């Protein structure tokens, strides 16, 4: 994953919360409450052990990193969060020294035994060490490993070799608390873009050691941070409630929209100077199916609808404008091209779709050519996307809107020719192609049971049957598919990755051999690609690095460990009582920046 790339859903799924067809308007409340629904269930709330976008969205409002992104600035801009200012950086980008603001406190928790617990530099040393602890099996360890924090990998290896607990107390050169409020990172290699790690509140927010020790293997149920909210209630896969953190410092609403950004300037004028968070509570339901999620919003149960289900797009925003009947109800919408890419991965260790031999590559490329992306986007996704030509995500470095590749091509004739050429033919006359050695050839994509997933599966089945390939879809809950993907048990599965920063290299971690089984769920291992990835990590921004991106894109498309589908448009809807919202480009913490006026019954 990028820095790590977060796993999101290519098609909505999750655990369903049954709703009535018509919901009652909420009762008036003096509290300001933001109510909406996730389309997929969360997993856990330990930043070191989760990497799904839904859990990340929650934890990014509980924990705080050193830096953050400005709420309104476009292009995105990094600003201090708990840091006292911008970092002191050595000329070679290997030494990063940061001062922390004094007087920042963790939310009250029994783990602190009644004492107020101040955030210190040691908390960031401990937080980063947690990603190296083998006991945590962190999906983000490879990202930290790539940073080469001096001594951290050796400390991890010591724990692995000795089979003893990870030694958090052993000093290392790469992570130091120089004093109570100064933390220093020393890297083994030049990392010009290390700031994106420091700004990742969704993952690298400070964790208190006492809390982890107090809750042990239940730490994912007890998130305690310095952020604007704390976890108040959690019914797993059903309801998540966050409430204002009473211990939150005085922090005032501010942002820096561009001078010609009329919408941003209006938001700034309305909210600047108010104390954060603006709302008292956030209540998030988990609703799998699009229709009940839409009805719950339409009938006033929710104030905000994130990611309007695709099958309602033409009714809700015909021609890109909110429908008049909805506008009369005070509903507005924002349509944006998001920083994500939808993909289907192939397990490169699978005996059917994996491998690097010419005939194995040919099978994946034939599958890619057989998929009608234009129809998928137009019909299933209701026009809410543009075809992906490479894995690089819009608005990140390396993305070129003029780049074209075979990935977006739809050609059943070429697919058939490739299959014929490499021996994938119907040997027994049953109408389906077999493997070159005569063994049965059955594609077994994992999927979910929601409506969009069913529509995508139907399209794939028709497309692949047209070239003689048999499919047997395996439906399951999305969290179960994620577990299967991590364990290497799935043959194929459709997911999406969202950018976590402005560096396009982050998505390429999905192709990087050392991250196989982690962010690289395809388990793709190609030395030529790894060499390019390593050069990208060290190269300063400029023409040389852009050329490396071009090489990486061509290898990604040629070997096709992932069939790339599209970059999506998303529509977010809200009632007139919600103000201050702007979809983040690649961060997740925004709940504290919006205001929700209580609605009258």
The largest sheet, given as strand count, sense and whether it forms a barrel, is: 9 strands, mixed
| Shape descriptor | globular
For the record, the CATH architecture of the domain at 40-282 stands as 3-Layer(aba) Sandwich
Classification by helices and strands? alpha+beta
Q: What do we call the CATH topology of the domain at 40-282?
A: D-Maltodextrin-Binding Protein, domain 2
User: What proportion strand?
Assistant: 15-25%
Question: Ranges with pLDDT <50 over ≥5 residues?
Answer: 1-28
Helix content: 25-40%
Characterize the quaternary organization of these chains: single chain
Q: Identify the CATH homologous superfamily of the domain at 40-282.
A: Periplasmic binding protein-like II
* Main CATH class of the domain at 40-282: Alpha Beta
Distance between the termini: 45 Å
Give the C-alpha Rg.
Answer: 24 Å
Count of helical regions: 19
Instruction: Say how many strands there are.
Output: 23
Mean pLDDT: 92
Characterise the protein shown here:
The chain has 601 residues and is an alpha+beta fold. The chain has a domain at 40-282: Periplasmic binding protein-like II (D-Maltodextrin-Binding Protein, domain 2), CATH 3.40.190.10. 27% of the residues lie in helices and 17% in strands. The strands form 6 sheets. Strands 1, 12, 13, 14, 15, 17, 19, 20 and 21 form a 9-stranded mixed beta sheet that branches. A hairpin with an 8-residue loop joins strand 3 and strand 4 (78-80). Helix 18 (527-538) packs antiparallel against helix 19.
